[in-house]
Write a structure and sequence with these properties.
Elements lengths: L2 H7 L7 H4 L3 E2 L2 E3 L9 H6 L2 H17 L5 H12 L6 E5 L5 H10 L4 E6 L2 H13 L5 E5 L12 E7 L8 H11 E14 L6 H9 L5 E2 H11 L2 E8 L3 E7 L5
Parallel strand pairs: 2-5, 3-4, 3-6, 4-5, 6-7, 7-8
Antiparallel strand pairs: 1-2, 7-10, 9-10
Helix pairs in contact: 8-10
The chain binds S-adenosylmethionine.
Amino acid sequence: MNLALLDRAAPLFDRDRAALAPLVRDGVLDLLGDAFTPTFTQRTLDTAASAWLYDRTRDALMPRFGLPDFASESQAVAERLALAPGAIVLDVACGHGNFSADLAKRVGPNGLVVGLDIAGSMLHRAAARIRSQGLENVLLVRGDALALPFRPAVFDAVNCSGGLHQMPDLARALGEMARVAKPGAHFAASGFARSGAEESGLRGWLWRRFALHFIPVAALERAIEAAGFEDTRTQIEGSTFAYASARRPEAA
Ligand SMILES: C[S@@+](CC[C@H](N)C(=O)[O-])C[C@H]1O[C@@H](n2cnc3c(N)ncnc32)[C@H](O)[C@@H]1O
């Protein structure tokens, strides 16, 4: 990561630049260190092997399970984020950096994308992706979506693709995303969701435990509004996938 990028991004953070610089390692700003206890699912995705497997198979497997291919999903997300060149975008649960890289190309060199994830192994792959694509406007951060390390109202757009179903506390994660979004900023999410009610009993517990938790869209809409967004819309694709979008209210 070049230091000019850290200089550009520093005003977004809830701490001084001087405190950030020593935490950059291998292209990732690590704000968690060892001070984080992952859930079972978070730990499962945070190994070199699982991150490699995810990176290698995601795009091929999605269409096979009736889910959108990456080109369609990233286009749908970008439209919902209403991106303008130069926008400052947060990509929560960025994983191996597929959306972060795509968003960075869309906002151009004057824009900035911050990709945030808790899994060092996924971020390691994201850093390789960003380097190999020659992108200089993506800052990768190891942080927790439940306690975002940013000042309030600093992002023009906030995305969370493939991540909401993994949040141990969805309301808190959405509340954090709303807190860091500027007035009028667009929010988008894509991932496992479905119509109907939450799966209950042992089956529901197992789904959640293994992060194959299909969030009921009605509950997701309520959670997005309760977090402080408005104009919430969802669109179900197939039986286990949905897009969501919303906006932060303009300042009064
Ligand atoms: C299925 S991957 C999605 C990666 C990428 N956005 C995509 O759509 O392909 C889910 C990601 O959510 C991350 N994640 C889970 N809980 C998180 C949290 N509390 N804060 C930040 N990231 C989290 C995981 O580490 C994982 O990389």
